[in-house]
Amino acid sequence: MAASKEPWGKTVLVEFEDGIAWVYFNRPEKRNAMSIELNREMRATIEYLATDDRCRVLVLSGKGEAFAAGMDLQDYFRATDNEPDTTLLQVRRETEEWQWRWLRMYPKATIAMINGYAFGGAFAPLAACDLAIAAEEAKIGLSEINWGIIPGGNASKAMVDMCGMRNTLYYAMTGEPFSGAKAAEMGLVNEAVPLSRLKARTRELAKTLMEKNDTTLRGVKVTVKRIAEMDWDTSADYLYAKISEAIHFGGANNRKGAMKAFLDDKKFRPGLQNYSDKGVSTLKEQGAKAAKKSAKKGAKKAAKKTAKKPAKKAAKAARK
Ligand code: COA
Asked: pLDDT by residue (tens digit) across 130-156?
């Protein structure tokens, strides 16, 4: 449990709910543009929550209409234009520290919940979060070209890592905004849902993560991100070292119990279920669910067609 005074409350808001820390950018009147003050507060908040037991999954989102309309053009850019370069570097460092240095390898699972506008500077924290869900209606973009700069603050890096070269070049060069649905199609977020379902779906995903062993979950997210930049030999060695570390750190009982449940008790199928000290739970099957939905749709369409046929025939006969 973190001990010092909670550092949020002005430009950042935190709400706790059963292991989830909902962390909000809280300048809705400025569409959550990230000011120097907000970056400092967010940095302290993220640091604080790393050791706060009320936070097992951190969800990053925005109050009001925006996730975040990028960096504050007045406070972050114009107001620092004539400052000494040491001040400028300090401001940048404070931003980077929370936006991706800290957040990318954060010791807890993180989800970005994109509730609305997300531009420019919003891309680094969006991509630094482990998972992301967007409202279909969200408007997202690398808008920097529209006001004459190159998308910095690792915004372009965030997009090219997630969405590939063609998509990034297209959106960075045209400055066109795209929807949450398009973001899902390009891999910038995991999925898009209607805004009305966004919080419920995010909560559901956070709950799934909280059924896992915290130590192992941390190991999974960190290793996946690190090995993306390694060759196969280094990756294999590193992964075995991290497996040992996770067992040493607190994953041992989970592994032992799950092995017993599968190999001895025959009560658990790891491919389809999750094992935790609370018991065995069945995993949601994305593929099966989608197939079922499309089969249902197909059946409905076929039924409609069959129902229409006699009516059409009758109408034809009547015309004759
Ligand atoms: N920096 C500073 N202020 C910002 C801001 C930003 N990035 N984004 C919005 N604001 C401020 C506006 O100046 C305005 O302030 P005011 O009420 O004191 O005049 C307020 O937020 C509301 O913005 P407004 O443009 O009136 O809202 P809107 O709902 O019509 O449009 C956006 C919302 C996000 C489309 C629009 O504000 C915008 O394009 N923002 C800049 C986005 C961007 O390019 N970000 C990249 C920065 S790296």
From this structure: 999 999 999 999 999 999 999 999 999
The domain boundary residue, chosen from 177, 210, 243: 210
Does residue 70 have its Cβ closer than 6 Å to ligand 1?
A: yes
Active site residues: 71, 76, 121, 144, 240
Instruction: Quote the number of domains for the chain.
Output: 2
Residue that terminates a domain, selected from 155, 178, 210 = 210
pLDDT tens-place string over residues 275-284? 988 889 999 8
Distance CA 214, CA 219 (A): 9
Q: Is 182 exposed, middle or buried (0-12, 13-18, 19+ CB in 10 A)?
A: buried
Both 127 and 228 in one domain: the answer is no
Asked if 50 and 166 sit in the same domain, the reply is yes
- Please indicate whether residue 74, judged by its CB atom, sits closer than 6 Å to ligand 1: yes
For residue 34, what are the domain limits? 12-210
pLDDT at 190 over 90: yes
Average pLDDT over residues 312-316: 56
241 Cβ partners below 8 Å, 6+ apart? none
- 174 in ligand 1 pocket by Cβ < 6 Å? no
Question: The domain spanning residue 48 has which CATH number?
Answer: 3.90.226.10
Q: How many CB atoms lie within 10 A of CB 143?
A: 21
Token pair 């809280």 is found at 26
123 pocket-lining for ligand 1 (C-beta < 6 Å): no
Cα 110 to ligand 1 centroid, rounded to whole Å: 26
Asked whether residue 3 is domain-assigned, the answer is no
Q: Whose CA is nearest to atom 26 of ligand 1?
A: 30
